[in-house]
Amino acid sequence: MSLSTSLFLSAFLALTCYIVLRQTQKGKTPPGPKSTNLFGGGKMYSWKWSEELYRKYGSIVGFRAGGDHYVLLSSPSDAEELLAKQAVHFSGRKEVVYAGKYRSNNKRMLLLPHSDELHKQRLMFKFLVRSTALQSYHVREELHLARLLENLIDSPLKYHDHLYYYTAGIIMAVTYGIDVKANQDILDEILSSNASFNKDAVPGAHLVDIMPWLDYLPDILSPWRKDAIQKHQMEIKLFGKLANDVKIRLGQGVDTDCLMAHVWSSQSKDKLDDESIAYLGGSAFEAGTSVTAFLIHTFLLACVNYPGMVSRAQAELDNITPDELPQYHQMKQMPYLHAVVKETLRWIPVTPLAFPHQSERSMDYKGYEIPARSLIIPSIWNMHRNPENFRDPSVFDPNRWFDPDDNGHVKSSSNLLAGHWAFGFGRRECPARYLAVDLAWGAIASLLWAFDIKGVTDQSTGKAMNIDPDMIPWMDGVNIEPAPFPISITPRSSVHITKIKSKCSA
């Protein structure tokens, strides 16, 4: 045997031994199903499928979809450890070609990688939801609440539209400083854009996000690219005009108290370009409008199925504010209502699967290897529906949160955001969470004060009908809500109607 052959064989043997040794030293990946087919994105992002995986494989599940490795976390302690305590390694985002690169020009906060751009946008967003700002919004919120109640008196069957009108009206006011009544056409465009993006952003919604090499094909073979760019151009025209109108008012010396006014005033310091500013306003709309409307819609579903909850909450409201609409300064006086809002956040989470975090490096965790660039999905649904976390988790039961102080008020230590995981983890926690729960409390309190809310009457039995959440369609996307369902929403008395009408005309 020649020397060169011997050296080659020795080198080959050494390389083989090294590879085998590396494989044996590497931790095993979490258990899970076989790789999904290339078109499995829709099923992959189903919260019901995540529940099946948890029951079959446990609280840490690994699987491949397309060319990506996913890790599904169903334990809040695992999610806290990886996504919060080790957030520096688990706060990335995979580039989303359709919704991120082309539809958003890599400017949309939800899809931004862990970067300076993300930091600057989130810092600006904090201005919108700082505690002093939330208090200053209450006057605006109470006006929009009165409008919501009046609309429900006049056309209760359109309750779904009225919920969006309420949440979007407030967000339009605090983001752009304008009244929704004079901008209905713009509002309709924004809501349509939000609904479209909610579907486009679902991981695997578009083939190019599963097979990124398709992005190298020419435009003639990539009609999806033209579609995404057209949506981007429409969004920039829409969000850009709203943002620029604020800039014009500032230049004219008009007193404009809103998020966009603050952003424009800080532009030279924070160095956000005009397109980033436009998308920052759009992100405020997406985060504040849809999440809150979906949350209130889910609450109405609970009212249909749990009339005892409605009666008890109304009794508390009648004790505290029998003759006037509830106000935010009374929040701490109503511990059962506090528990109702908190249970609404837990029962059917608006975002059942948090948007995937991308790992920045490989890591060994609990004997499993989490490869670098893995996509980590916290299943909020599994966490909230685990009987180890919540007794009888499918039941809407505010009593699990009801714990008043000695004076019968909400405990000073109690927090609507604590004890559940509805808004995600770590550096990717929903930045609009404080505003969302504020708006939800106001709407839930006012709806219960003003209306009897129950299922429609079954003509054969004369009783109100329940609606099984598992038996009705849900509108899928990154966020979910039930499709409109039959419901009876009637004013509690003529006195309530008079109070609402007078509030609207004031």
Automatic annotation (TrEMBL):
Task: Spell out the subcellular localization from the entry.
Answer: Membrane
Record's Gene3D superfamilies? Cytochrome P450 (1.10.630.10)
Q: Which InterPro entries match?
A: Cyt_P450, Cyt_P450_CS, Cyt_P450_E_grp-I, Cyt_P450_sf, Cytochrome_P450_fung
Amino acids binding heme: 430
Q: Does the keyword Ribonucleoprotein apply?
A: no
Q: In which pathway does it act?
A: Secondary metabolite biosynthesis
Q: Which cofactor does it need?
A: heme
Q: What protein name applies here?
A: Cytochrome P450
Source organism of this protein record: Tetrapyrgos nigripes
